[in-house]
Amino acid sequence: MRKIKSSKKIGVFITAMSMLLLTACGDAKESGGSSKDGELMKAKLVTNWFAQPEHGGNYAALKQDFYKEEGLDMTIEPGGPQISSTQIVASGKAQFGYTQAEDVLIARDKGIPLVAIGAIFQKSPQVLIGHEGALKDFKDLDGKTVYTAPGSGYWEYIKKANDLEVKDMAYTGSLATFIDDPNAVTQGYVTSEPYVLEQDGVKTDYLFIHDSGFETYANVIFTTEDVIKDNPELVQSFMKATTKGWEYYRDHSDEINPFLKEKNPDLSMELMDYGAKAEEELIFGGDAKEHGFGYMSDERWTMLQDELLDLGIIKKKEDVSKIFTNKYLGE
């Protein structure tokens, strides 16, 4: 769910695909350290947008004091259009961040040693949205005017895989041009845009990016190699509390959503309720159903890396065991 603009109301959307020239890593010890004499360890998480249901578990862990119970003095810093979680974490100004799996690979390809430590979404909530009846299969995108964030890896993959000829347009956050053009397709999140458009009286069909074969993990929680090396207890405590928070939000989103609204007054309670319901299976289904919240597989990371290599988005291949770890998941 991100900030979006329709002809009548504002919802929440933006794509988090970053093609960044990142700064070199700073000292990760700046903003955290080991607990001494029962003192709480300071830690910071930078998300990829303003507070919303896609961050609900972390805010639940904050509100319910799960972080404090694990010995953490936790701060959650919301992202935004001018905020790069990867840059902030890489520079040592925060220990943890949210981004997309492909961004971790892109950063590492540029020499920035990020490490994924959990995936919020097993199936990405990102979708391509068309007017009702116009979009049943990815082949139906041929000939359309398509609004996506420039440089999006998933879109390059879909165009190549389906041999599409389209009119590419830069996504700006506005839905007005989509609404006015029956031949248009726009990017979006299933947790937001379909609801916002329905409220505007616009009926739609949508296709999950995941179903195209580009099976990225969305809202990946990441840190740096230095944080893992220097303070593994911090990482373990953070992920334990985060897991507990997401399980709590799954069962008590109606209790946590008012707290989210305090952090982001632009959200409506109706949209948050819609988003929380829409995201549950995407978070707790798939491999998470068998292996637990946050699980990531060698196979999917390898496949994603190979796809980015084939598209020329990254240049180097490396052992995926260096890119992600499930070590800190669960209890």
TrEMBL record:
Q: Which domain of life is it from?
A: Bacteria
Pfam families cross-referenced by the UniProt entry: NMT1 (PF09084)
**Cross-referenced InterPro entries, in alphabetical order?**
NMT1/THI5, SsuA/THI5
Does the UniProt entry include the keyword Cytoplasm? no
According to the UniProt entry, its GO molecular function terms are: transferase activity
Q: Which PROSITE patterns match?
A: PROKAR_LIPOPROTEIN (PS51257)
Any one of the GO BP annotations: thiamine biosynthetic process
Q: Which UniProt keywords apply?
A: Transferase
Alphabetized Gene3D superfamilies for the sequence: Periplasmic binding protein-like II
Instruction: Spell out the protein name for this chain.
Output: Myristoyl transferase
